[in-house]
């Protein structure tokens, strides 16, 4: 909210939050937690349903893999 009060947002007291380094830091932290949650949830769900999944090996490509039925 405080950024709205400044014409030049990068020079405001909280302007550092707009830097790419800060954005990357926040994004990396949140993305890591999101991916861990996704992998955990898939593991829980695969006990009940057969579906295409992301694996640790293909997280960077986003390719879904249909695992073999147990």
From TrEMBL:
Highest rank taxon of the organism: Eukaryota
Protein name per Swiss-Prot or TrEMBL: Glucose-induced degradation protein
Lineage of producing organism: Eukaryota, Metamonada, Anaeramoebidae, Anaeramoeba
């Amino acid at each position: 909210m405080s950024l709205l009060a400044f014409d030049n947002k990068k020079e405001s007291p909280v302007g550092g939050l707009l830097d790419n380094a800060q954005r990357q830091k926040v994004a990396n932290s949140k993305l890591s937690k999101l991916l861990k949650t996704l992998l955990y949830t898939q593991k829980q769900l695969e006990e009940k349903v057969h579906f295409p999944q992301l694996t640790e090996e293909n997280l960077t490509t986003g390719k879904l893999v249909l695992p073999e039925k147990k």
